[in-house]
Amino acid sequence: MDVLGSGADGASLASRIRIVLTPSPSRADSRLRLACVALACILSGVAFTAGSVARGQLKEPSFEIASIKPNKSGEPGGSSGFEGSTYRGINVSLMRVVRLAYSPIQEFVGASDWMNTERHDILAKAEGNQTPAQMRLMLRSLLADRFKLVVHKETREKPAFALVLARPDGKLGPSLRRSEVDCSPSNRDKAPKGACGFRAGPGILSSRSATMDMLASELILTGRLVVNRTGLTGSYDLDLRWMPDEFETSADLIIGLREQLGLKLEEIRAPVEVIVIEKAERPSEN
């Protein structure tokens, strides 16, 4: 039986095979057009996705729930810190929260008086396990949302202090002791709830576990940036007491650092990253 039809010899069979396997110009053009259409669709999808992200679908990290209430107790001191995936501020000024949100930056300019004097109780919770860096970003979002805080960064050459060891032999003062809890950045999430942080008030600064970087940050009460140059690593328990006065840098604070903690402040000049506060509003209570 001749399945190829009559007259299908070897030469004609080869010709037919070449015709089938070799695309004609029109067939090649069609394939090229189809490929271009497919590529255009893919690129269009990519552009749509990028446009969607640019239009704000990629959101800043934020807390799942947050409560802000005025604290009119009039009591001195207060507490501010992260407890796992929770931020808790008791009797805190807005500026104290801002300093935590933008840590390790310590210099802030442009704050209104009420941002330092009016106090709040703030509780904010995030879902899942969050790092301290992620929590700071969430705190910034909270401040922008509830306090309408607007800031920008600048670098300025300014007088500063270096926190250093007071004694040549490196001996610490009686009120500065190694802590059993490690609050360094790599271990802070593993620390017991509420273990890492400071308690502060007029003439009082204490912590059950703090790094020297954290102490330097708290010493913004001197009115200048304080840079940790102690060389001390790990976490420490400390209790610092001094007689506050009207001057930016209390002489009694300087004495207390030396005698109680075995530390001192040395005057330096340094390029300082500054947060400039452009705007802030009192929050609505909830």
Q: Which radius of gyration do the C-alpha atoms yield?
A: 32 Å
Shape: globular
Largest sheet: 8 strands, antiparallel
**Protein structure class:** alpha+beta
In helices, the fraction of residues equals 25-40%
Low-confidence stretches: 1-28, 34-58
Describe the structure.
The chain is of the alpha+beta class and 286 residues long. It has one domain. 31% of the residues lie in helices and 31% in strands. Strands 1-5-3-2-8-9-11-7 form an 8-stranded antiparallel sheet.
Summary, kept brief:
This protein is α+β, with helices and mostly antiparallel strands.
Question: Keywords, please?
Answer:
286 residues; alpha+beta; eight-stranded antiparallel beta sheet; four-stranded mixed beta sheet; 7 helices; 31% helix
Q: What is this structure's SSE topology?
A:
Elements: H1 10-21, H2 25-57, E1 65-70, E2 78-83, E3 86-93, H3 94-101, E4 107-109, H4 114-117, E5 119-125, H5 132-146, E6 150-165, E7 176-178, E8 197-201, E9 204-210, H6 212-218, E10 225-228, E11 236-241, H7 251-261, E12 263-279
Parallel strand pairs: 4-12, 6-10
Antiparallel strand pairs: 1-5, 2-3, 2-8, 3-5, 6-12, 7-11, 8-9, 9-11
Helix pairs in contact: 3-5
